[in-house]
Amino acid sequence: MTTSRKTRAERLQETRQRLLAAASDIIAQGGVAEATIRGVCQRAGFSQGAFYTSFASKDDLLLALLGENMQQAISGIEALLTEPAPAGAEVVDRLVATVVGLGENTVAARLAVELHLHAQRDPAFSAPH
Question: Which of 12, 47, 57, 123 has the lowest CB atom count within 10 Å?
């Protein structure tokens, strides 16, 4: 029985995802100000060196979180659009259910609000946001 070892790229991607998940949890609980690089690293179980291997700065992490959440929303809508076309009103019902489902994801909603507020307060973050 052989176990395949993860490639360096796979390990880096896993580290990045764990850091993103930790940041998302911290921001959802306490806001952007609570998501320090040190705190994110501690929550994810990595050193700050691992952080800087994945992200250039806290703003880079925040933009990656925003992009990830937007991609999830887009994927949900794309999945709806690629399903076999239902009859008339059912299309609208499915679209409404999908959009409502996006709004019911409280972590993603809090994250979006926190990132928007951070962009309002920080002009350097606002431009790429």
Answer: 123
